[in-house]
Write a structure and sequence with these properties.
about 220 residues
Length: about 220
């Protein structure tokens, strides 16, 4: 399971876990008898970009690195609340949600776990902090802000049972784009946290983390 989870931090994947039943023959060789039903099944939303499920040369280093990070995180914080671990759990739940539009909910919760430190202006602080954390380029920040705004809007419609935005109703693939954006932003956040060893920073108290994130906004 740790290995499967580490793969998902790198790119969208259809990886799934199964339990294989084996027996030994008279010569002591293993013989496959069957396998359990698949668990942790991944459902990629329709319209996924060609090749996005395939690993490329060089990513084996990332797999090893993220596997260690994920395992260490569970060992250190398993059983206790930690915002990165909490976000990571919901990131995995996003994969386990088979109904496409509902996947937006756990992905948003993952982002909220990372960036929200109070109950005030949750949507606004989420998109500003997420954009500032992932980029220092004005154009890219503006793009991320607009993506998070669309993500949060779709999430609110789904959670509160409201009518979906007209652009989503008229173009179902648009909702898939928004869902993939949510997944991608979560993935990019985990990659940066693990690559730059920011887990201790995101494990600070709310007020201390708020100062760090707000510092990124005004820098």
């Amino acid at each position: 399971h740790r290995f499967i989870e580490s793969l998902r931090i790198i790119r969208p994947t259809r990886a799934a876990c199964s339990t294989f039943l084996l027996s030994t023959d008279s010569e002591g060789s293993f013989q496959a008898q069957g396998a359990s039903q698949k668990s942790s099944t991944i459902w990629i939303t329709y319209g996924e970009r060609l090749g996005s499920q395939h690993f490329v040369h060089g990513e084996e280093n990332k797999i090893r690195k993220y596997f260690r990070n994920v395992s260490d995180m569970y060992e250190k914080y398993g059983g206790n609340y930690n915002r990165v671990l909490n976000a990571f759990v919901f990131f995995q739940l996003g994969y386990l949600t088979h109904y496409a539009k509902l996947r937006i909910v756990p992905f948003v919760i993952a982002l909220e776990s990372l960036f929200n430190t109070s109950e005030i202006e949750v949507g606004y602080s989420l998109r500003i902090r997420c954009a500032s954390f992932l980029s220092n380029k004005k154009s890219e920040k503006e793009s991320i802000i607009q993506k998070v705004k669309s993500i949060y809007d779709l999430r609110s419609k789904v959670v509160h049972g409201s009518s979906l935005p007209k652009r989503v109703i008229k173009d179902p693939l648009k909702s898939n784009d928004i869902i993939r954006d949510a997944e991608d932003l979560c993935r990019r956040c985990f990659q940066k946290i693990f690559d730059q060893n920011l887990l201790p920073k995101f494990s600070l108290r709310d007020d201390e983390l708020a100062r760090y994130l707000d510092g990124l906004v005004i820098s």
